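Quick illustration, no need to memorize.
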Amino acid sequence: MVRPVCSVIVAVYNGAAFLPQCLDSLMAQTLDGVEVIVADDASTDTTPEVLADYAARYDTIRTLRLDENHGQAYARNQALKLAQGDYICFLDADDWYDRDALRQAVDVFSRHAHTDCVLFDVVQWFDDQHQQRIPLPQFEVMSGYEAFSESLSWAIHGVYMARRALYDRYPYDDSCRAYSDDNTTRLHYYISREVRPCGGLYYYRQHEASVTHKAGLRHFDYLRANESMRRQLIDLAVGDDVLRRYENQRWLVLVDCWRFYFIHRQHMTPHDRRAARAEMKRVWKTIDTTTLEPRNKWKLGYMPLRPSWRLFCLQEELYFTLKRWLRRL
């Protein structure tokens, strides 16, 4: 069997409604040598039947099924163990690639021997009449450190193809059921020699069923994912400047989690509301406030106000109430 050029990892959980469009986009790619590995994260809908049908029709699709639901990052790692391609990328089960996307990414690798990550262009798809590209800064090439720095605030996104050596060194961070896979993106950028864009399009479906839109406790995994990222940066022996920048990012994420809590708490159970506040308080105590930039700590809504958790909570309530009144929330 000829070794595939590119392996596409698809993790799916109860994605039968959108999975055919996802897989059809991969079978229509203009790049030869694409293998698709789909990990079914213990779906309870008709996903297994959809996968069985596609695997029977296409010998480039391989599937595996997990006995228990573990989350996207864990499922992706199980698929990674089977990947044989020189280059690896992911595709969420409710998204799809333009038919020329993978070829454009591989072409960039072919032209630039020191490039380790290639970014796709991402189009947010709301419906047939409403799509919007996620903006990227104009660049031909970034160093790994530059790309990592830009990814802290997601000035560049995390939808890319990478050489398999990066995944061999850093598979998906599955320390949390959600959000910890973002850490993998940043680590891949950090250890890259070069990062370049390509014109290949990734269509990112926007709908209320996604984790980022659900009003539940899972959103606060973001805080633990950030802690996992910080530990890994320390293990990498990065400079103090990187740790300072990331601590500022952790602080901004904490404030954003309070925003999420403020907007969605009426849809959360009493237990989840208590758990969310407890998690935010735990992380609030761990922030090294001496590293925070003045713009991130000397304005309403962002002042740590330690050691008074109660005062911090009152500040957040006031801040987001004012934003709601001003219709800026």
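Residues 214-325 form one domain.
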